[in-house]
Amino acid sequence: MKGIDYLYIGLFLISVVLIYYALKHYNTTRQLLSDGVKTKAKVIHLIQVRSDNGYTYKPVFEYTNKVDEVITFESSVSSSPAPYQVGDYVNVLYSKDGNTQKIISFWGLYRWTIILLSIASPLLIIGGGYVLYSRF
After folding, report:
1. Within its chain, how far is the Cα of 101 from the centroid?
2. What is the pLDDT of residues 78-100, one digit of tens each?
3. SS3 letters for the chain?
């Protein structure tokens, strides 16, 4: 085997690992959609995050669960301009154990699945194509 073969096999293996984690995130979201509880969360604060291009804003949400506990969580994503204003309401899906909360939107539910598959796809095509071409 030449050194270049290891590179392409490595690309293929990395793509397989990324696809595995994408499927894992997808199944977690699917499970949350089937078993989770839907509610409305209120934006109570915007955290200002300094970045290279200025500031981005990360919303902090608050909702009341089924046992009347007030739960506060911050978004894992920040953006500029701010996606929400203080006082806005957002549909949220949370797990019954309260460990997982996701905003009900395409990007909120499937963000990691999309990102991981976007990285894995070209690696799979390049690495897998080379492996198939060199073996057959």
Report:
1. 12
2. 888 888 889 999 999 998 887 88
3. CCHHHHHHHHHHHHHHHHHHHHHHHHHHHHHHHHHCEEEEEEEEEEEEEEECCEEEEEEEEEEECCCCCEEEEECCCCECCCCCCCCCEEEEEECCCCCCEEECCHHHHHHHHHHHHHHHHHHHHHHHHHHHHHHC
